[in-house]
Amino acid sequence: MKDTTIEDVAEHADVSKSTVSAVINDRDVVKDTTRQCVLNAIDTLNYRPRGSARRGFQAPMGQSLGFVIKEIDNPYYSEVQAGIQKVAAGQGYLTFVCSSEGSFEQEEQIVKQFSNKDLDGLIITPILNEETDLSHIFELKRNNVPFVLLEDVRGIQAPLIDVDNVQASRNAVEHLIELGHERIVHFAGPEYSIHNSERIEGVRHAFSRSSLVFSEKNVVRVGDSWREGYESAQAYFSETDFSSGAATAVTCYNDLVALGVLEGLHDMGRDVPEDVSVIGFDNLNLLDYVSTPLTTVHVPKREMGQKAAKLLFRQIQGDGVKLPQRISLDAELMVRSTTGPPKF
């Protein structure tokens, strides 16, 4: 007869392994009714913690959370992390951050390593494309590991904190249309992000609600970095003269791309917004230090991190709702000096 495991106790009590660990270690993060339910399961199953479980289920790292991001050099994630850490520190938890760098294989390894280290829960910005194998995320759900997603994974019922990227992108393009722009191009992001496809869809929606006709030429595959924005702007705008067909306005996947576009246009002798209007996405804190105030979509990144952490702790404490919560935060267009009426 096999020994009773912490997984058996978690299943019997209908809680996560992290909640069982919290009860074993007499942490005060678990509500009394859940604690008693776990203690009853331990007694019923005659469970006896030993080894790492006796020191704490998460012994190698202590009370800790994992935050899985996609680009280590993207300041967007540092702002989300600030929100996560504020909540986590208030609970006496550390937060460990690892980046997949856009690699599904690396994300899978990170999630498995975090799980092996028995962190109390994970907040994940997943790699998503047509070739992605999401088995490691399904495995988290099967093993009752608390986790929250910051991008939607279709087919997985899990807690999600995000903004309505389709609506936000549509609002940005509609702003340009209202200014009189008819030649609008979208500098798209990496294909491994669902946010990329959602923002392209927002461009489509804006076109469909106007007299403009959308085609694949309205989308330029760029990426997510300043360098890619700079190089793509120079390549795109050097091919066609503004007065004879080039776009008079650009919406960008994120602020880093938009800042690269601004610099690329400047080095070509093009004026913003007189020659080209430019819109970013995210409203990064670093925009406060940019000489040209960028029109962009504000994403409440710190709030996103805080809400994700709070939702994660509800799962850890055994106080989560039975059905996963999906929270959509407001994303507001911030109109600044990089957008104006077209000259041509």
UniProtKB/TrEMBL annotation:
Q: Which UniProt keywords apply?
A: DNA-binding, Transcription, Transcription regulation
SMART domains documented for this protein: HTH_LACI (SM00354)
| Keyword match Transcription | yes
UniProt entry tagged with the keyword Cytoplasm: no
Q: Which residues form the signal peptide?
A: none
Show the CDD domains listed in the entry: HTH_LacI, PBP1_LacI_sugar_binding-like
* PROSITE patterns linked to this entry: HTH_LACI_1, HTH_LACI_2
Alphabetical list of Gene3D superfamilies matching this protein: 3.40.50.2300, lambda repressor-like DNA-binding domains
- Residue ranges occupied by any HTH lacI-type domain in the UniProt entry: 4-58
The cross-references to InterPro entries, in alphabetical order and at most eight, read: HTH_LacI (IPR000843), LacI/GalR-like_sensor (IPR046335), Lambda_DNA-bd_dom_sf (IPR010982), Peripla_BP_I (IPR028082)
Superkingdom of origin: Bacteria
Entry GO MF terms:
DNA-binding transcription factor activity; transcription cis-regulatory region binding
What is the protein name given in its UniProt record?
A: DNA-binding LacI/PurR family transcriptional regulator
> Which species does this protein come from?
Salinibacter ruber
